[in-house]
Structures are given as structure tokens and as C-alpha cells.
Write a structure and sequence with these properties.
With 147 residues, the chain is an alpha+beta fold. The chain contains three helices and nine strands. It has helices at residues 2-21, 34-38, 90-93, and strands at 40-47, 64-67, 73-81, 84-89, 95-101, 104-111, 114-125, 129-133, 141-145. The longest helix is centred in the N-terminal third of the chain and has 20 residues, at 2-21. This is Lipocalin-like domain-containing protein.
């Protein structure tokens, strides 16, 4: 009777050994670059002015940045003008591009009248948040990902 179950037991041990020692051939996920993390749509949560004072209100909280993979950018800025909340969609009347290089971001707005540029701004980005700094020590513009 012992010899009857011996081959079955040996087969089970062999199968378990192969299963237990099987290597995971999946490649480890590489960490996304800052440029890859930036792609998506972001809505402002907090906005600090150049004096590092909180300038956030219900109107400015509507401001969005959308970074596309082809380096185009859609920038809709909301502000209080003549007592009502108004939108300035830079991308509707201008070419807005961004570039990430050496951990810094440059944003260029080109209009018929000329161009504006925000060169080499530092920023932090994760899957959920994005902060843009205008100078060292600036508290920044704090965004949350919405897409």
C-alpha cells in the first residue's frame, strides 16, 4: 500500500517545488519621470502671491493647467475682474507650450503680439499633486490632479 501512494506523493512534492521556486519574470516597474507625472489636468488648490500670502479664493480655485504628452499646454486662469469671476484661457488665443529639462519647467505663451515666457521654474510633482515655484522660498501654486 505504501508503494501505491509513493509516486503520487513524489509528483506532488515535485510540482510544489517547481511552483515554489518559480521566478517572477515580470520586469520591475520603472519610476515615472517628472515630465511623465506632469501629464494630465490639474486644478489649483492654493495660490501664494509673490509676497507668499495666500491669494486663493473661490474664483482662482477654478484655474486649471493641462499638460499634454506632446508638450502642448492648456491654461485656463480664473481671476476676479470688475467684481465678477472671469476666465482667461491662454490656449484659446495663443500657443502655449511647456518643456521639462533638468528638473525644471519652462512655459511659453506665443501670441500675435509677441511672447511671454516663464523660464526654468522649479516644481514638485507626484501622482496626486503638483506645486510650481516662481522663486526660491516661494510657497508656490499648489494643484491637485483632476484627470
Amino acid at each position: 500500500m505504501k508503494t501505491k501512494y509513493y509516486p503520487l506523493l513524489l509528483l506532488l512534492i515535485l510540482c510544489f517545488s517547481i511552483w515554489a521556486c518559480k521566478k517572477d519574470n515580470r520586469e520591475p516597474e520603472r519610476e515615472k519621470t517628472k515630465a511623465e507625472l506632469l501629464v494630465g489636468k490639474w486644478q489649483i488648490e492654493k495660490m501664494y502671491n509673490l509676497q507668499n500670502e495666500d491669494d486663493t479664493d473661490d474664483c482662482t480655485n477654478k484655474t486649471t493647467f493641462e499638460f499634454l504628452a506632446n508638450n502642448d499646454m492648456r491654461w485656463s486662469e480664473w481671476f476676479v475682474g470688475t467684481e465678477k469671476c472671469s476666465e482667461l484661457a491662454y490656449h484659446e488665443h495663443s500657443s502655449v507650450k511647456y518643456q521639462v529639462e533638468n528638473g525644471l519647467i519652462t512655459i511659453r505663451i506665443v501670441t500675435d503680439d509677441g511672447k511671454a515666457s516663464f523660464d526654468d521654474l522649479s516644481f514638485d510633482v507626484s501622482e496626486e499633486s503638483f506645486t510650481l515655484y516662481f522663486f526660491e522660498g516661494h510657497k508656490g501654486l499648489l494643484f491637485k490632479r483632476i484627470q
